[in-house]
Specification:
Strand order of the largest sheet: 1-2
Low-confidence stretches: none
Number of domains: 1
Protein name: Cell division protein ZapA
Pfam family, one: ZapA
Organism: Formosa maritima
InterPro entries: Cell_div_ZapA-like, Cell_div_ZapA-like_sf
Order of helices and strands: EEHH
GO biological process, one term: cell division
Length: about 100
């Protein structure tokens, strides 16, 4: 299993050893960096010192971003489907004339 990579990520002053696929490394390191940045922002903005509270706030923030992107994607898909239906109707009218 030489295709696995062992890395260590530090989040909220704790080190997490992981065994991952090499193509996952960049994404995991960026995610850890984003979490650390968000932790610092929450600690400064809200004077929160309990790491569990800060991590819960980070989890909520990231989860809400994922959910919002899903909602936005559904809205775009619905809009595109409506446009395609309208275009198809115009083509049918034109072709049957």
């Amino acid at each position: 299993m030489s295709d696995k990579l062992k890395i260590k990520l530090s989040i909220a002053n704790r080190v997490y050893p992981l065994t991952i696929q090499p193509n996952q490394e960049e994404g995991l390191r960026k995610a850890a960096k984003n979490i650390e940045t968000m932790i610092n922002q929450f600690e400064q903005s809200y004077s929160v010192r309990d790491k569990q509270d800060v991590l819960a706030m980070c989890a909520l923030q990231f989860a809400s971003q994922v959910e919002q992107k899903t909602i936005d994607k559904e809205n775009v898909s619905e809009h595109v489907e409506d446009k395609l239906t309208a275009l198809n109707n115009l083509l049918q009218v034109h072709l049957s004339s």
